[in-house]
Amino acid sequence: ELKVEQNPLFLSMQEGKNYTIYCNYSTTSDRLYWYRQDPGKSLESLFVLLSNGAVKQEGRLMASLDTKARLSTLHITAAVHDLSATYFCAVDLALWAYFGNEKLTFGTGTRLTIIP
Amino acid sequence: EAQVTQNPRYLITVTGKKLTVTCSQNMNHEYMSWYRQDPGLGLRQIYYSMNVEVTDKGDVPEGYKVSRKEKRNFPLILESPSPNQTSLYFCASSRTGNYGYTFGSGTRLTVV
């Protein structure tokens, strides 16, 4: 069974600081996704990481994927208040292992609060 | 605008009263899925559909039904809701090849 663990679960940080959210998963997978969720809102896709070594950046957020270590990181640079949200990583099983259901397994999320 | 539309956004109902949450997508996606989100548990898959007339159970299917008669629609049916089905529900769709989901805006269901 695929398990996805995020840490930390809660993160409170000051504006201007850097920090990293970690996402570990238990089974071989080539694809990892990061989503953002604002309170009471839907999930917004941030990054899709499709291969080992993939790195993507959008503004102050950068995501990377190490499939050998089964680890993805979401790095926040010079945080601003607008980045306050809950961030989820999600993983799908390698197609050969679970053909058919393109299911994403989600971590429990990291609630990020940026303090002015 | 490409989107997944869920209705209703909020619903309060009583135990045992059948209800349907609708989901429609306009992106011609083959794959659709329902998730529920609960505090501390993240998102868990209820049911999924790979195409018209093809549906299957996810991780937590008990108490739910789905149908996929048309490609764009994937309703979630609760035949006899119970309080433990109080949750935030999301419908999602994607094109085959799993390049990530597009999520609906969510339905907050309360069963009393």
Describe the structure.
The complex is a heterodimer of chains A (116) and B (112). By secondary structure, chain A is an all-beta fold. Chain A has strands at residues 4-7, 10-14, 19-25, 32-37, 43-49, 55-58, 61-66, 71-76, 85-92, 104-106, 110-115. In chain A, strands 2, 4, 5, 9, 10 and 11 form a 6-stranded mixed β-sheet that branches. In chain A, strands 1-3-8-7-6 form a 5-stranded antiparallel β-sheet, with no helix packed on it. Chain B contains no helices and 11 strands. In chain B, a hairpin with a 3-residue loop joins β4 and β5. Chain B is mainly β. Chain B has strands at residues 4-7, 10-13, 19-25, 31-38, 42-51, 54-57, 65-66, 76-78, 87-94, 102-103, 107-111. In chain B, strands 2, 4, 5, 6, 9, 10 and 11 form a 7-stranded mixed β-sheet that branches. In chain B, strands 1-3-8-7 form a 4-stranded antiparallel β-sheet, with no helix packed on it. Helices cover 0% and strands 51% of the residues of chain B. Chain B is globular and about 40 Å long. Chain A binds chain B through residues 31, 33, 35, 41-45, 48, 88, 90, 92, 100-104, 106-109, and chain B through 31, 33, 35, 40-45, 48, 50, 56, 58, 90, 94, 96-106.
